[in-house]
Amino acid sequence: GAIQAKREAKNKSEKKAESQVIDQIWKKHVGHTIRLSAHLEELTGLQSRVTILGHVQRGGTPSPADRVLATKLGTAAAEQIALGNSGIMIASKGLDTETVPLDEVAGQRKTVPPDHPWVRAARQVGVSLGT
User: Fold this and answer.
1) What is the CA radius of gyration of the chain?
2) Contact 87, 106 (CB under 8 A)
3) Domain count, the chain
């Protein structure tokens, strides 16, 4: 009755307030990944692509592990944004997440050995990996 109606009203108002906070965060940060990608291309001369989770999901059904990872990383990222932190990335380490300053990872090249199984598999299906 009345208690349930009051609970629902509170839930609706809380949901609306939460939605407004998310909208503010989105408007403040929209386009950052696209600008970062363009900047990385300028700095490295290499192609950079932005991966948007929703677009990836439409390419196939996400597994439960995909959903858990996306939720874990997205939650950690939102928490850092709410704290006003920037210039960081969220890394998954075991069951936890951690922040890593971008200046610690930007500009560093992590190579894969030419005989790595991933490289061999890519070449076998015709993927060009350059010279």
Assistant:
1) 20
2) no
3) 1
> Over 70-101, what HEC string results?
HHHHHHHHHHHHHCCCCCEEEEEECCEEEEEE
Q: pTM for this one?
A: 0.44
User: CA triplet 74, 62, 94: central angle to 5 degrees?
Assistant: 50
Q: Does 73 map to a domain? A: yes
Q: Is the dihedral of CA 118, 122, 123, 125 positive or negative?
A: positive
Show the domain range for 79: 63-131
Show pLDDT as tens, one digit a residue, over the chain (131 residues). 555 555 555 677 887 887 787 777 767 766 788 888 888 889 888 888 777 766 555 566 677 888 888 889 999 999 999 999 999 999 999 889 999 999 998 888 888 898 999 899 988 988 888 76
